[in-house]
Amino acid sequence: MAIYFTFWKGERFFALPIEFVEGVSRLEELIPADWGPEWLTGFTFFRGQVVPLVDLERYMGQNLPPVSARYVVVSRSKELLGFGATRLGAHYKTEEGPEPLEEVRSGFKGQLLLGGRTALVIDPPGILEEGGER
Asked: Does the pLDDT value for residue 14 go beyond 90?
């Protein structure tokens, strides 16, 4: 059985395998990353560590302003990564696995029906390893 943590960024509904979630925090300070890809919003701090923040809508190719009051912090061993969240969801348990999508950027496992909504399932290691390459 898998457990997913869900949240919204704009109108998109996202899910993360719960084992990746380190926490949720309010965005207190943002250090812009003008030199990076447009989907890299900038950097912030979480429990004394620097966290790069990814705007998932921009990562998916939408040119929307990065507005988020919170961010979800995920971890893969010692590397942290944050995703802007406009609204937090719930935890869902399911026996189902994500349904693969052909036309989705690396960093996503596919889609999954959770709580009556279709969520895009994020693969944080894919985003960390791929670095946003198409």
From this structure: yes
